[in-house]
User: Fold this.
Amino acid sequence: MALTATPVFPQTPKSYTATITNATSTFTITNIGTSTVTGLVSVATIGTNGSIIEAINVASTDSVSHSLVLAFLPTGGVLYLLATVTIPASSGAVAGTPPVSLLNSTNIPGTSSDANGNRFLYIPASGLLYVGVLTTAVTSPDVISVVATGADF
Assistant:
């Protein structure tokens, strides 16, 4: 995108989804900065002019808690860990146990916030966001569902 003095606003609202199942869920991070990690699923493919991710919510039907990893893969091909967050058992699947919002100051302290205090991530063109769970597989046939909302520029 060419540099301009005109403000650039999000153009195309997007909702992204990912599902982590027993077959796709487990991996061990040895050196996330340089190694290829298997078991991650893509949450968002970023647009050609970059994107803003304004919410990432996670729900689980599993009766055990999991450590969920959020990772970013820029165009350069090196995977970067953004956060590891505990997803409580049955979060978002039973009354009284809400889904987990990944974009908050507790889970990812360095995230930017807008004028209303809402957290967001700017993701450069052609980047990818991934999620996966560490070490303990999701119990079959349960699932962890990830829904992200944002917009392409």
About this structure: The chain has a mean pLDDT of 83. The CA atoms of residues 50 and 125 lie 4 Å apart. The two ends are 9 Å apart (CA to CA).
